[in-house]
Amino acid sequence: MWVPVLQIVNMEDDAPVIYGLEFQARALTAQVAESEVIRFLVGTQSLKNENQVHLLEFDDDNNILNKTVFLHKDGEIWHISSSPANKSILTTCYNKIIDSKISTCAALWRIPSDADPSDQDQEIQDDSSAYARPLEVLCRLDNSDIGNFISVLWEPQGDGSKVLSVSDGHLTQWDIEASGSEAKVSSSAALESKGHPKFSAGRWNPHHNNTQAATANDTTIRGWDLRTMKQCYTIENAHGQLVRDLDFNPNKQYYLASCGDDCKVKFWDVRNTELPVLTLTDHSHWVWSVRYNQFHDQLVLSSSSDSRVILTNAASISSEPFGHLDEEDDDSEKEDEAETKPKEPIKDGLIANYEEHEDSVYAAEWSTVDPWLFASLSYDGRLVINRVPKAEKYKILL
Amino acid sequence: MAAPSRDDMDSEQRRRRKHGMLKMYYGLDDEAGKEATTDPIDIDGAHFDPDVYLARLMREKRLTELVDREVDMVKQIRSLDSDMQTLVYENYNKFISATDTIRKMKTDFKKMEEEMDRLATNMDAITDFSAKISGTLQDRREQITKLSSVHMLLKKLQFLFELPARLKKCIEMKAYSQAVRYYVKARAVLLQYQHMTSFHGIQQDCNEIVNDLRMILREQFSNRESSAKQLAESVDLLLQLKEPPDELCDEFLSHAKEKLDEDLAEIASQVDPALVGTQQPDSTAAMEGTDETRPAEKLMRNIPMDILEFIDSSCNSFLSNISLLIASYKELFVDRQATDSQEQEKLVEVAHAKLAEFVNSRMQQYFTHVDERIKTEKSTVDNSLLVRALDRFYRRLLATDRLVPQLKIIERASAIIAQCGHERALFYFDGLKRHFSECMTDIRQTLCAPRIAGKKDKPDMVDLLNTTTTSVVEQLKVILTNLKAFIASDITFSQTPYFRGPFCQDDVREGLLVAFFRHMYSASRDLCDGVGEKGSTTAPALILVLSRLLLDFESTTISQLLVLTDELFPIDNRRSLTQTSVLCAEAQSAAQTLLNHYVKVQGLQISQMLRKSVETRDWLNTIEPRTVRAVMKRVVEDITTIDSQVGALYEEGIRKAHSSDSSRRALSYSVSKQQQQRMQRSYASSSNFDTSLMSNIQKLFSERIEIFSSVEFSKVSILTGIVKISLKTFLECIRLRTFGRYGLQQIQVDTHYLNLYLWRFVSDEKLVHFLLDEVVGSALHRCLDAVLMETSIVEVICDRG
Q: Domain Exocyst complex component EXOC2/Sec5 N-terminal spans what residues (chain B) (predicted)?
């Protein structure tokens, strides 16, 4: 099991850091509001045991992961996301079984305030599971009308007052009170089409003042205008089979990445939905997640049930196809990058194939703090923290 | 025989010496004698000095030698004396007669002397007389000479005075050459004496007449009806009349141009009948009434000639005309004998330049028309006519080219022919492409048909493969044979290196054959890319057949066809050719892509079925399993169908060793038993700590399974690929659901069923066991009330199913 780690050590790159959870897990997110420390949140999935949310802090200097475990008593976690404004607030989607019926609910949680990992390090490491404190419920989202939740999405770079929920047949926008104690439906749209279509994924578009989102159901990708809750574009048959995940290019407003059961990752220009602008076929089984690097949008991370995480360079369709150019819609976060000038265009293609996982990898997320670091989570509860290979990093920076 | 001859030679020599001595005596010595006589000690020489000789002897020789010498001398003298005696004796009579003759001569000479004296006196008298006569005749002779010169002059003058009349008469009699000759004779004189009024008058008259003559000649020259000979004559005369030659050249050419343009128009009308339609009104208007056969001709024109006829007629009309023109032009302007060589050179230069320009422009037009005409031949399938036409075209041009080699007509003609060859190759290439896509359509249709017709699936696949291969190969062979016509040995242009090389290599081998192979690969690959994009409907079986087809190509067909091509179209320079091995490698990789795609498509189809079946069911609230779910049976059926499909085309492949069929069920049972035990154990131990530990540990020791790895060209490998994809999907779907007790049991039944039937398809049955274990394991994890069914019951249910 540890052999791959040794191999990586030999290759001059930093060794991946592997962390094992006791339970199976699917839900992973970076702690978005945190801007100093590299932190990830993982939600476990266990039917029989009490589920947990692990707050993992990565110590870059010592290559050590510090964990804090919180109890999530309501059920197994299928999706987790953290507030962009308040680092102690997060949402989960979890399964609840009532009268032998499964329903997936969603709730806003607060991490107990005194559970600052830096203070608690020692105790937690001594006895992690015993010293787990429960998360505090802020409010629960009402799913009585809209069906099972698939995911809850925070407004990108927002003030934490708006979330978007994707549930079986509905896309719903919620307003959250400043205290977080109440969430109200502000607008909602139903997915209407033949049969009983169900959403499989959704993503909030960080451009256009956060007024757009995209969802996937079966093989179709739909774009939504959140002001009117109407569809603004559709990509029919985007994938040969079910679409599993979506992500928007953080720097190019019309570019969208999608992945699905046909083992492909596709990139779309939503202004022309006839053909994808780029298709990657590196995976050999369903691709479960695709993520743009928030700082360098040529880096795309995809994870698949072939137990691989693949880092791809999609420079030709990135905001810097010919190396670094100043973009008009520069994010504030790109400032540090502004001095760097890559000299020659970087070619598209696979950068690295990370094979530390033994089971299907259902989630991979970039750190919101370190642009070269990401975490991936496989079903067997193994979390791996990896870095972009140094060679590639220098190619982009220099 | 040698002895007498030597004697002869000796006697001969002796005689000669004697003769020489006699000659010497009489002073008749020849050159050799002269040379020999300068030595005073030479005893036989004329300048022999006995004192010197004796002194020398005394001085140089010894006594004995002297005595010997004396004896020798005496002997010699004796022999000489006797020789002399015989000589005298022999010639005695001659001496006597000679004396007689001499005596007679003396008397005769006396008589002669007298007569000679008389002759001398007579001669003197004659001389006196003649001197006297010439003295008297002197004056008369001068007068006569004068008179005769005056007569000559008068004759000339008369000629001059008569010249206008004569010229007129000549012109009336149409003896133009005579007239010109007269005029040319008189021209210089007239020019010289033009200051004298009378001559001036004559000159003017002459000039007028000659101008008329010129006019007439020009008329004749410009008359299109006049024959070549007439033309030549008039040009010749005009040149003699010092008409500017370049003007004449121009005029000559412009007349010729009219004729050639007619030919060209005719040719053009053949090329493009529509064009004629627009031109027709003017020409008919001009010719109205004159030509009664016009409608018939028109009708004729509307029937398009075939290419050979076209080339023939164009050659006959245009090319022969232009050849004639060039020949006569050269004769007239270039090969003329002119007095002034400098002038001649200049003329030749100008004439050449004009001819070149003219012929160039005409030929250009002609080539354009021919080119167009040939291009319209694209659609015909048969080559022989075209090739024959081209050959004729080439040969005729070869002849024309010889007339004006500097124009490089033949190069352009070759270019046209090469272009034509290239286009034929392209045309055939297009045809091949079409044929290939038709083949694919055929396969597709036959694949659809038998499902309705009957169950003859198995032989169909092989038949399909064979018919497709044969039809493609046959088509290629037919095309190659067709193209072979271009380089047949009796075709003139085919022998030229600048046609043959590029045609064989670039057009046929690379442009047709290699390009076609590449087209096959890319077309096949396109099929793969097309699927999954927009729900394309490429039948997986088609992909399977194609992959086998490409594999067959790789193993035999490509090299066979290349060898055939190389035989038919020998190529000298083999360096820049695409290697067979490269093509084969490409074929194999294309076949691999297709096969991978086939596996993917089939795998995904079964996956889809499994996914839908898992997703649509409420596993939490399901009833106790009584049967295997229909979808599982369907999966097994489908895989069996695929198996037979693939089996028809691909070899079995290597399996990992497994037990014989008879023990199969028992084994699978025991495996499932172990598996169950393991599950129960893991379930039992999972109450508090890591539930996935067991499976993790197991994974640690089992090989990592590549869900989709590249398949080999064997049935087992293909089927293994499909089964892997299907089962992995099953597993993923299970993980997304939550199960109740009966849901779990249903999965247990289903997996057992699959275990019973799927092992036979795959290379390593452990793989199936492992994946199914994973499925049940995952279901166990996802189960709220995990109670497994009794294995015996599971078996019973499966048996019933």
A: 43-378
